[in-house]
Amino acid sequence: MTDDMMTPPVCDGFDPMERYRKELALRQTFSTLGLALFVMMTVWLGLTIVLSVIVQVLSFRTPAILDFYNDYALIFNELGLAIGVVASLPIVGKVPQVTVESRSFSAGHFVRLFSIAFAISTVGNWISNLFLSVWNGATGNEVTNEVIDLVMETNPWLSFIAVGLCAPFLEEYFFRKLLIDRLRPYGELAAIMTSALLFALFHGNFSQLFYAFGAGVLLSYLYLRSGSFFLTFLFHALFNTLSGVLPMLVMDDILAFEQAIAGLTDEALTEMMPDLMQNYGASLLFYAFYVLFLGLMTILGFIYFFKGLRRTHVTRGEHGLSAGRVWRIAIFNTGMLLALILLLLLMLFSLFTL
């Protein structure tokens, strides 16, 4: 038997062995990255649960331990995430890294993309609030945004360290730097959508799901166009700080003001207004400018989004596989299925947390 007889025929440029090798490489890549995400999440959640149990047990003898844990819960959460990311590195390292080329990215382009983030956040919050309103009405539950609740109960400076710095750094490192550097060979579209989808599910609740997906698309696009991990971290850190941490500086005063004027007649309100302005005037003014800033950024974001939508192009992979085939292989493999099942279970669990 000759070598020609042993080699599968190539018909009209179609090489079945080459296609098999490409599909195998695709499956191995997504399975390995899915397994890395599964390990990261498992270590993170496991440490969180173990630490919570230890604190509860110790608090029976020393109640102050529980108060300390609650005060620094956000910091402990990010520490657990950091350990989870480190635990995933040996698995991620099995996939060859193709570093995204560094390119210049203008400040104006950065600002335009940043304003789009506020527009996407607004739409995402609308969808989330509508979904949760329907869910709560149908089930009688009171599911809220637990992250906002936790941030409101935490010292603003600790919130800034955890939400404004640590979370953006760890999340951008894993979902942009680690994932996209290894998904880029399969095309920018596959890299962006995979990173954004996993990033959205990673948040583990429906309050953040929709806007986190949109933010993930923007951050992935920014990383692919700039090749700069620092820019994606800066983008993420600024957005988290402006949208999640900054308003908390005056939120206690805003809520106290609302409580103070609740049920007052017009005459009583007029009489108390000087004292109210003395106590809460600075916070009210700050909040008014903050709301104005958000509104302006959101409007600009919608304008820039629709204006730039047609001019934005992403490349597809050169693997020769159909989009449907790529996604079937990317999803239906051991590692990615483990990660998706865990993430979806967390999403469902969040709907039953009161």
- Summarize the helix and strand pattern as letters: HHHHHHHHHHHHHH
Q: What summary fits the major beta sheet? A: none
Number of domains: 1
Cα distance, first to last residue?
71 Å
Number of distinct helices: 14
Count the strands? Answer: 0
- Structural class designation: mainly alpha
Helix content: over 70%
- Report strand %: under 5%
Gyration radius from CA atoms, angstroms? 24 Å
* Shape call: globular
| Stretches with pLDDT under 50, minimum 5 residues | 1-12
The pLDDT mean sits at 89
Short characterization:
With 354 residues, this protein is mostly helical.
Describe this structure in words.
By secondary structure, the chain is mainly alpha-helical. The protein has one domain (13-350). Helix content is 79%, strand content 0%. It has helices at 3-6, 16-59, 63-71, 73-92, 107-139, 146-152, 156-183, 188-202, 206-226, 229-245, 248-261, 266-308, 323-331, 334-350. Helix 2 runs antiparallel to helix 3, helix 7 (156-183) packs antiparallel against helix 8 (188-202) and helix 8 packs antiparallel against helix 9 (206-226). The longest helix has 44 residues, at 16-59. Mean pLDDT is 89; it is low at 1-12.
